[in-house]
Specification:
The structure is a homodimer. By secondary structure, chain A is an alpha/beta fold. In chain A, about 45% of the residues lie in helices and about 15% in strands. Chain A is built from 13 helices and twelve strands. A six-stranded parallel beta sheet of chain A has the order 2-1-3-4-5-11, with helices on both faces. A six-stranded mixed beta sheet of chain A has the order 7-6-8-9-10-12, sandwiched between helices. In chain A, α5 (about 70-85) links the parallel β1 and β2. The longest helix of chain A has 16 residues, at about 70-85. The radius of gyration of chain A is 25 Å and the shape is elongated. Chain A starts with a helix and ends in a 10-residue tail after the last strand. Chains A and B meet through α4, α5, β2, α6 and α12 of A and α4, α5, β2, α6 and α12 of B. The structure holds a DNA duplex (16 and 16 nucleotides).
DNA sequence: GTGAAAGCGCTAACAA
DNA sequence: TTGTTAGCGCTTTCAC
């Protein structure tokens, strides 16, 4: 593998000159520039970014931590982060934590050792401690699709409260009076907010809040199924369910049908995220859409701004979710 | 950010000593080891992997190029690659190429400059040229879910021929006589092989091969829909379709229904991959399952072996696909 | 316009 | 068992 020395020698110039033509800095005559370029090509020279990272203190890499890359929502987030990062000249190193505190900590240390320029967190972060340590180390951090109320950190997310409100309002307007909600994990702010929005909607619709209609589960289809079974086994089962993500919603539909309820005529279901599977479900899922590409773009913009140091105040970008009406919701049965 | 010098000074030893305790090399007394460790912790010292990469000529990073991270099949592949890589101490840098030759080339150059230790390719690689250039540069390369007949390179994939054969045989056994196939792209070996397996199955079943029943499309739902429309508009339309991936299959089902055909009683559909969406489709998709976790594990094992230099001969690992029977296939209508 | 030389933070002989 | 020192491949003053 050719080094800058090889190029310099072959071109009959100093390494400083070669460096300047690589980086297009300093003043180099058109003639030598061309010549050096030719030699670089001839030698198939690839400047070492690890060497330059050592001197420049910039790796042009950002770390992305998320719960699970094979979860479509996060895969789509990752893709949008990747795209924007590439546009801005950054590589992305992805770490799936499975929401495991141990992995989280391990990967975080690893990313620091790799000297990534910044870290984007899409994980629920069990504790704020890890984030805090990054902040203390003055490493640029930004959260996406998650929030930490306690910490001053760049954040971009959708208005989860509004999302929950939209979902529940929609169901209330359809005449449902027993509306349940399935949340992933009440310790994660996004889930909590969605449930709060749901409560607000019930209140506005003059419906009583019933604690037993709030189910908590894991974040996958299985969790949705299991929670739905519990809800439908209630004395006065719900006629509509707001699931905090599309996967959970799919689980609802499956169990609803398995127990002989047709969707939406006997059971209405609303999801959240609007990933590809929402449109594939049968019936297609009415769901609260997150503008995923915008999430990715914004969070990368925030973190690169911070990396470049051109920014002082931390920002919280809140995007507006939108209710997408499809076939899984209908008038309350009577 | 503390450096090895800071630690050495604070601990009253030389940097060589610190280096030895970091890497657990050489012989260090238990006492100084403990002391140095304590100082490292106290200073929140994170050894710079970029500096050590410069001397060790190892970044402990592997690049992963794939068409699209937000495509569930590739997301699952990426997740399995990531997991195995982490187990072995490697980070993964992901690049989505959209099968765009320009991006492919750009990312490849980039990964080389980053001095990744190896590159895993899950892209269809328009031309073998890019792969060739990596091989020439003696950079470890491995293909997953793709093959290059012409190049001597580590490969792990599923037996696509067998997969196509299983799918078409199943349909033939159900009595279908007009069986169509939708392929992504005949320049990609995996698609080609699946079609060949399909042909073989037809032949064994004594069915004639009809060129007009082979449709080529893009790799997403839209492509599946569009191809299905063409097929169903034929004078003698097919009663069964083998789609080369689950997304295409979903498209088939949607168009089949939109044109008034019920699935599977009037139109049978088989997919490929067995991603999560196959089980979510309505009806659930009969599909050829790829053992994705094994693909990821094997390809990482192959490439790390090559990185470690403990391997000479290139290997081609071929895993066996399995037909998963669900609800999208049934007896031919009569 | 160009080059000499001093680092960047670490590893790996080789001495001591 | 520990320390000295010469790189690794590049960037960046600062002379010339």
């Amino acid at each position: 593998m050719a080094t800058i020395y090889d190029v310099a020698k072959e071109a009959g110039v100093s390494i400083a000159t070669v460096s300047k033509v690589i980086n297009e800095t300093g003043r180099i005559s058109e003639q030598t520039r061309k010549h050096v370029r030719a030699v670089m090509k001839e030698l198939d020279y690839q400047p070492s970014l690890v060497a330059s990272a050592l001197t420049k203190k910039r790796t042009n890499t950002i770390g992305l931590m998320l719960p699970d890359l094979s979860n479509l929502f996060f895969a789509e987030v990752a893709r949008s982060v990747e795209d924007r990062a590439h546009e801005k000249g950054y590589n992305v190193v992805i770490c799936s934590t499975d929401n495991d505190a141990g992995k989280e900590e391990k990967y975080l240390a690893w990313l620091r050792q790799k000297r990534v320029d910044g870290i984007v967190l899409a994980t629920g972060m069990q504790s704020d401690k890890s984030v805090k340590s990054l902040l203390d180390a003055r490493l640029p951090v930004a959260l996406v699709a998650r929030e930490s109320q306690r910490l001053a950190v760049d954040t971009v997310r959708v208005d989860d409260f509004l999302g929950g409100y939209l979902a529940a309002s929609h169901l209330a307007q359809l005449g449902h009076e027993r509306i349940a909600v399935i949340a992933e994990n009440l310790r994660v702010s996004s889930s909590r907010e969605r449930v709060e929005g749901y409560k607000k909607a019930l209140e506005e619709a003059g419906l009583p809040f019933d604690e037993s209609l709030v189910a908590v589960s894991s974040f996958d289809i299985e969790g949705g199924k299991e929670a739905t079974r519990r809800l439908l086994a209630l004395d006065r089962p719900p006629t509509a369910i707001f699931a905090c993500n599309d996967l959970l919603a799919i689980g609802c539909i499956q169990v609803g049908r398995a127990t002989g309820r047709s969707v939406p005529s006997q059971l209405s279901v609303v999801g959240f995220d609007n990933t590809l599977i929402a449109s594939l479900a049968e019936p297609p899922l009415t769901t609260v859409a997150q503008p995923i590409p915008d999430l990715g773009r914004h969070v990368v913009d925030l973190i690169t701004q911070e990396i470049d140091g051109g920014k002082q105040a931390k920002q919280r970008v809140v995007l507006v979710p939108e209710l997408v009406l499809r076939g899984s919701t209908g008038p309350a049965p009577r």
